[in-house]
Amino acid sequence: MEPSAIQSATISVLVENEAGVLARVIGLFSGRGYNIDSLTVAPVDDDRGRSRINVVTSGTEMVIAQIKAQLDRLVPVYKVADLTREGPHIARELALIKVISTGEERSESLRIAEAFRARVIDATVGSFVFEMTGGTDKIDAFLALMRPLGLAEVSRSGVAAISRGTNIL
Amino acid sequence: MMQHSTTSRSGAEILLQALKDQGVEVVFGYPGGAVLPIYDAIFNQNAIRHILVRHEQAAVHAAEGYARSTGKVGVVLVTSGPGATNAVTGLVDALMDSIPLVCLTGQVPTHLIGNDAFQEADTTGITRQATKHNYLVKRSEDLARVVHEAFAIAAGGRPGPVVIDLPKDILIAPAPYNPPSEDLHRSYRPRLDPDPAQIRKAVALLKAAKRPVVYSGGGVINAGPEATVALRELVRLMRAPCTSTLMGLGAYPASDPQFLGMLGMHGTVEANLVMHGCDVMLNVGARFDDRVTGRLNAFAPHAKKIHCDIDPSSINKNVAVDVPVVGDAGRILRAMIAAWKEDSQEQDRAAITAWWRQIDQWREGDCLSYDQDMSPDAVIKPQHAIRRLHAACAGRNTFISTEVGQHQMWAAQHFGFEEPNHWMTSGGLGTMGYGLPAAMGVQVAYPDALCIDIAGEASILMNIQEMATLAQYRLPVKVFILNNQYMGMVRQWQELLHGGRYSESYSEALPDFVKLAEAFHGTGLRATKLGELDDVIARMLATDGPVIADICVDEKENCYPMIPSGAAHNEMILGPGGEARAAGLTDAGLMLV
Question: What number is the ipTM of this complex?
Answer without folding.
Answer: 0.91
